[in-house]
TrEMBL record:
Annotated GO MF terms: 4 iron, 4 sulfur cluster binding; carbon monoxide binding; iron ion binding
Name of this protein: Hydrogenase formation protein HypD
UniProt cross-references to InterPro entries, sorted A to Z: Hyd_form_HypD (IPR002780), HypD_1 (IPR042243)
Upper classification of the organism: unclassified sequences, metagenomes, ecological metagenomes
Organism from which the protein derives: marine sediment metagenome
GO biological process: protein maturation
Amino acid sequence: MKYLNEFRQKKLVDKLTKGINHLMADIGRKVILMEVCGTHTMAAFRYGIKDLLPANLHLLSGPGCPVCVTANDYLDKAIAYARKEGMIVVTFGDMVK
């Protein structure tokens, strides 16, 4: 897992962190980035990414990936509609996996 191992290298992490800190100092104001995928939110927490960010850069958890946050009941209804003659249901490819 080439990229996973690269991001665990302290020198690379230090370089990226320093670059982010310089960029945020140049911006000079609060910046909020919204993550929309729960998997990304968990990775930022699990691997300590939030702890590496400067004080003026905030991660905000968004609504979640449409695929991840869709209730089973909603999917059941979509399937029922799709089975009706003349009905077309359009969705994300990931939603039908």
